[in-house]
Design goal:
single chain, alpha+beta, Arc Repressor Mutant, subunit A, Alpha-Beta Plaits, 2 domains, 4-stranded antiparallel sheet, 5 helices
């Protein structure tokens, strides 16, 4: 009956949940650090205030938020906001927003994920024109020209997006594919 302990099962489930939560927390805290680079007071920095509100909604401890802001004001100058453009399966346009302390490493990681997932790296400006900022918030984007892709290509695109989201540096992904 080895491995059939009730508590061992709970432990395994908790480990998986904690891993997912930790990854989410690290992405949220990276967004807070990047937003706090210019102004560490959320009353004067809308982007920082929005990131803090989102982190609090997802129950990130206040201590971690404060530490991320402090880190940004001390040495956060090396964090960069990055925008990558790509084409996915079925010709779907993809915008990838990331925050990284090492741009070259992040570019190579994203290129590898795209290559393995059937996507293609696009030059700067070749995809962004297909999107516009959402009217209600500047940090959200929507497709100007949504496209319908074949169902088998949708599966490949969804898998590619999941692989990109698993990268610790990737913050947000937008595509012009109709879901």
């Amino acid at each position: 009956m080895a491995g059939h302990s009730h508590w061992a099962g709970i432990k395994r489930k908790k480990e998986i949940t904690d891993q997912k939560r930790g990854k989410l927390f690290s992405k949220l805290l990276a967004a807070i650090s990047a937003a706090a680079r210019t102004e560490s007071n959320p009353n004067f920095n809308l982007r920082l205030r929005t990131a803090i509100i989102k982190a609090k909604e997802l129950m990130v401890p206040q201590e971690n938020i404060d530490r991320a802001i402090k880190r940004a004001s001390e040495d956060g100058k090396n964090l960069e906001d990055l925008l990558f453009e790509a084409y996915g399966p079925g010709g779907a346009a993809i915008l990838i927003f990331a925050i990284s302390d090492n741009k070259n490493r992040t570019v190579q990681e994203i290129k590898l994920i795209l290559k393995e997932g059937g996507g293609k790296w696009a030059e700067s400006g070749s995809v962004q024109w297909l999107f516009e900022p959402s009217s209600d918030t500047i940090s959200e984007w929507k497709a100007k020209f949504p496209i319908e892709i074949a169902s088998e290509e949708k599966g490949k695109l969804q898998h590619l997006i999941e692989e990109l989201e698993d990268n610790d540096n990737v913050q947000k992904i937008y595509t012009n594919s109709i879901n």
